[in-house]
Design goal:
mainly alpha, TIM Barrel, 7 helices, about 10% strand, globular
Length: about 160
């Protein structure tokens, strides 16, 4: 059973709701991220959503957009993100939800991202990454990827006409 499912089961037994907090990894730096996680755990949060910054965070509001851009400007990269997750995991077993844009998974390769998340100490489960799932197969088929995290050769080129 995943840490998330265990937490919700525990809360259900106590007839309680979950307190879930979101923080941007690397905002404003890794040291602050770790201190914030420690504070949230000490304060009684049940689950932490740890966001990975994205260079074009259009689906987020202005606060998360700003945190994302500052995190990137201060050098947060995918490897440092997983390093932060590893450090968090050494200190606490709190359920973590790794939040990012699909673009990040696509460019890194879905399987590589999942593998790196597991190595960092994150339980990766769920239908979102189930290869037998029809939606996932459709995404793989339509994203121009062979499903192994490597791009196919022979990309189509499109011409635009000048008016």
């Amino acid at each position: 059973m995943s840490r998330i499912k265990e937490k919700f089961t525990e809360l259900e037994v106590r007839n309680e709701k979950a307190l879930i907090a979101y923080i941007m990894a690397g905002f404003p730096n890794e040291k602050s991220t770790l201190a914030t996680v420690r504070g949230l755990v000490k304060g009684g949060v049940d689950i932490i959503e740890l966001g990975f910054p994205f260079s074009d965070p259009l689906a987020d509001g202005p606060v998360i957009q700003n945190a994302s851009l500052i995190s990137l400007e201060n050098g947060t990269k995918i490897n440092s993100f997983f390093n932060t997750v590893t450090k968090i995991r050494k200190e606490t077993d709190i359920p973590l939800i790794l939040m990012t844009y699909t673009n990040i998974l696509y460019s890194r390769g879905y399987q590589k991202f999942i593998s790196d998340a597991k190595k960092a100490g994150k339980n990766v489960k769920g239908k979102d990454f189930d290869h037998k799932d029809r939606k996932f197969k459709s995404v793989k088929k339509n994203r121009g990827n062979d499903g192994k995290g490597t791009k196919r050769e022979g990309k189509k080129k499109y011409r635009t006409s000048k008016s």
